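Sample entry (326 residues):
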Amino acid sequence: MSQTLSHHLVPVPGGRIHVAEQGAGPLVLLLHGFPESWYSWRHQLPALAAAGFRAAAIDVRGYGRSSKPADVSAYGMLAHVADNVAVVEALGERSAVIVGHDWGATIAANTALLRPGVFRAVGLLSVPYAARGPHRPTDAFAAMGGHEEFYASYFQAPGRAEAEIEPDVRGWLAGFYAALSADTMGTGVPYFVSEGGRLRDRFPQGVLPSWLSEADLDMYAGEFERTGFTGALGRYRNMDRDWADLAAWDGAPITQPALFAGGRLDATMTWIAGAIAAFPETMPGLTATHLLDGCGHWVQQERPEEVNRLLTGWLRSITPRGRTLG
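Predicted structure, serialized as tokens:
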């Protein structure tokens, strides 16, 4: 593989996955979160390639050029794990390091948990691995927020969030990205919806975060204008199914070498602090935890140089001797 970025489709059990890849060497599979695409890794692909790795960023199923099944159940965690294994095989590899951001971090963690023979290490950005809880997720969501509705509950009913987002995809995305970025987040909490209101009611208006250019926003908006949001929201609509499907792994730790990095100003940190504190039990192979000062939720885009340095240093430290690093 050359140092030039290339795009192609690979077959998976549920259809196809779009892969953007660059570089040669040990494979690093990169998974984006909501609402993003392979493009979220645009700063990491050339950096990892230059460091001697084969970096492959996918459009997770439901996004971009990847398959978008109509059945909501097609977006369960087990399907995403199967996609990741199939991508590694389709790229002619036997193993990979998997790195994810946001929902991609949760998918990466469960992929490493379920298929340790394929994924030799896992990197998590913004969202830590959290062991399966005792309560069905939708029941837990319903108990949050008091008289307001937690965003994950708001996303549950098919068509409801789509009706808010799809009439103005570009504007909604701009507001959502700004609401979780360190330099534009303001004082509102964008994770709760007032009765009869919309999620976007608390988004900053008329401002873009410094990491997001007009061209970047055009890229994201163009993808979602074409695909709609139903596939992307399918991940939220499978959380109870995942809770049941993953019961056999209840309490199981991820034992591979692991890295976690998040932004100190990420509002998500307010309810995941317990998961970070539990790392000694849930991820005993953790080799590094980094909380980036002055950084929000979109860590690899807000702080690309720092994240590139952290990722390449960690990858080099866990790469077996004898693997080509360029």
